[in-house]
Specification:
Elements: E1 2-9, H1 15-23, H2 27-35, E2 38-46, E3 51-58, H3 71-80, E4 94-96
Antiparallel strand pairs: 1-3, 1-4, 2-3
């Protein structure tokens, strides 16, 4: 099992809408994330900076190249693009984080 963490940026004032959309996450998206090897996925919000911190547990054979190409993921990105900082393809502007400590 691998651990993955990254940050994203919410557009200020969209905190409640972001939470609402994730409370109502599409079943087909949840299923896809599980099927591709994500067993845990948490997102935390730093309200002072509108920074989102995401943490995932990934299977050892998780292929990070698969999800960005999937139509459901592209549809989700388009759905979220009005409330987040994004790249040209609507993918969230994100920054990978380096693990510096882990306690099991």
């Amino acid at each position: 099992m691998k651990r993955n963490a990254f940050t994203m940026k919410l557009i200020k004032g969209n905190e409640q809408e972001y939470k609402k959309r994730h409370d109502e996450i599409w079943p087909e998206l949840s299923k896809l994330l599980s099927q591709t090897g994500i067993s845990e996925y948490s997102i935390f919000l730093d309200e002072a900076t509108s920074t989102l911190f995401a943490f995932q547990k990934l299977s050892d054979d998780f292929d990070e190249a698969l999800l960005p190409k999937h139509p459901i993921v592209k549809k989700w990105w388009a759905y979220m693009a009005d409330i987040m900082e994004t790249n040209v393809d609507n993918s969230p502007l994100s920054k990978n984080l380096t693990e510096v400590f882990y306690m099991d």
